[in-house]
Design goal:
Order of helices and strands: EHHEEHEEH
Low-confidence stretches: 138-157
Distance between the termini: 41 Å
Radius of gyration: 16 Å
Largest sheet: 5 strands, antiparallel
Mean pLDDT: 80
Number of helices: 4
Structural class: alpha+beta
């Protein structure tokens, strides 16, 4: 395991390459199993948000330390704010404009141990932290929500 190194990638429409790079970084940083999958997933969701809602592009910066991995997602348009973290998606609204808005951030909050957004000189920085081992108390936080028959993402039994 390599500790305390940084890598940076531009956020472009080539999300497959970004996922491959983040996966390789996570392995080198000592993540395995579900934590590695979580890292790749949250990086993809955050980059997708920059492309869909920011529009001006950005960068993903990753570094590790002794206890985990950090991602900093820079949205050069500055579209994200701290208030976006507290929004709950309205999935009952149908498939119109705004449908599903906030789902990615909600999933990011559930999978990461720490999440924050900071505005810096016209840009927004989404900071994500995943510990190498999921805390025992986080098991309930990371458990999928109970199945709801009327929920559009419910799976049949």
């Amino acid at each position: 395991m390599i500790s305390e190194f940084r890598l940076q990638w531009p956020i472009t429409r080539d999300l497959a390459t970004l996922r491959e790079c983040v996966h390789a970084f996570g392995l080198a940083a000592g993540l395995t199993g579900q934590r590695l999958q979580d890292l790749v997933f949250v990086a993809n969701e955050a980059a997708t948000n920059v492309l869909q809602h920011g529009g001006a592009g950005g960068a993903l910066i990753a570094w590790s330390d002794i206890t985990g991995v950090n991602l900093e997602v820079v949205d050069t348009a500055g579209a994200l704010s701290e208030a976006d973290l507290s929004l709950e998606p309205d999935l009952a609204a149908g498939h119109g404009v705004g449908y599903g808005y906030g789902v990615g951030l909600r999933l990011i909050r559930r999978l990461c141990d720490e999440v924050s957004i900071e505005g810096v000189m016209g840009s927004a920085r989404l900071r994500l932290r995943l510990h190498r081992q999921a805390p025992a108390t986080a098991s309930a936080k990371n458990r999928p929500p109970e199945r709801d028959e009327g929920h559009p993402f419910s799976e049949p039994e």
